[in-house]
Design brief:
265 residues; alpha+beta; Immunoglobulin-like; 2 domains; six-stranded antiparallel β-sheet; four-stranded antiparallel β-sheet; 5 helices
Length: 265
């Protein structure tokens, strides 16, 4: 729930909001596989990987000698099957099947070992490059949002209130600030909005700058409502709360009507 700015706070210090629930699932971005798809390229990759984990450098990758030996067994099986399946004199469907099965076994074990290697605490990016595995990008720290969003009530249709959220009250930009994923939206029904954050209702989150709020039938026709919002980043850290804006619920379902913005003093 937000800490809502009052008249003094709206012109001065920055207030924070607590982390609200999110009604969306953030997408996980999956890295492209480090393993080549083509047989010849996979074999070349495996030759390098097998040599390194079985060398004097192997202990620095976080693998045991037994794991390195087990990998060599799968590598040799694939290398042998590869040569047999691509030799014109022995390229038969059964040998191609053997090659494909050996390739699958090698790839699965390679991924298993690389997961272990990637999690080894002392592994460096130079070692990753030497092994030809994924070098993870270092993300720069992302601070919580520092700007207070500005809200505009666009229209009221029956019990549906449409709002527009923009960067801040003094910006002409229509989009979200840099580093912001979306906004948490809060509502209150009453003649005067409270500064006690526990009295506000969490309406939901939005990653768009236009948001619709549907008030339940328990809210009387003509009731005065208040809306405020706060930006959040990808870590769901929130920034300062907007100055609340207000309008009145219409009775029944009617034509959408533009609403004159009323903002707290």
């Amino acid at each position: 729930m937000p800490n809502v700015p009052n008249e003094a706070a709206s012109s001065g210090g920055m207030l924070r909001v607590e982390r609200g629930p999110l009604n969306f699932v953030l997408k996980d971005f999956i890295m492209a596989s480090f393993l080549p798809v083509r047989d010849a390229q996979l074999l070349a990759w495996s030759v390098n990987f097998n040599a390194l984990i079985n060398s004097t450098k192997g202990a620095g990758f976080g693998l045991t000698q037994q794991q390195a030996t087990d990998y060599t067994t799968r590598h040799t099986a694939f290398a042998t099957a590869y040569q047999t399946s691509y030799d014109p004199n022995t390229r038969t469907p059964p040998n191609i099947t053997i090659k494909d099965e050996a390739k699958k076994a090698l790839s699965e074990y390679a991924r298993e070992l690389v997961r272990i290697v990637q999690s080894y605490p002392s592994l460096t990016d130079d070692q990753r490059r030497e092994l030809k595995i994924t070098v993870r990008k270092q993300r720069s720290p992302q601070p919580p949002p520092t700007v207070r969003p500005a809200l505009t009530i666009v229209s009221v249709t029956g019990r549906t209130v449409t709002i527009k959220i923009r960067e801040d009250g003094e910006s002409s930009k229509r989009g979200k600030p840099a580093g912001v994923l979306g906004a948490s939206v809060y509502t209150y029904v009453g003649n005067t909005y409270p500064t006690d954050p526990t009295l506000w209702a969490f309406d939901g989150t939005t990653t768009k700058t236009t948001h619709q709020i549907v008030f339940p039938e328990t809210v009387a026709n003509g009731a005065q409502i208040w809306v405020c919002a706060a930006w959040f980043n990808r870590k769901t850290e929130t920034g300062p709360v907007s100055i609340p804006v207000t309008t009145n619920i219409q009775g029944g379902l009617g034509q959408a009507s533009p609403v004159e913005l009323r903002m707290a003093a």
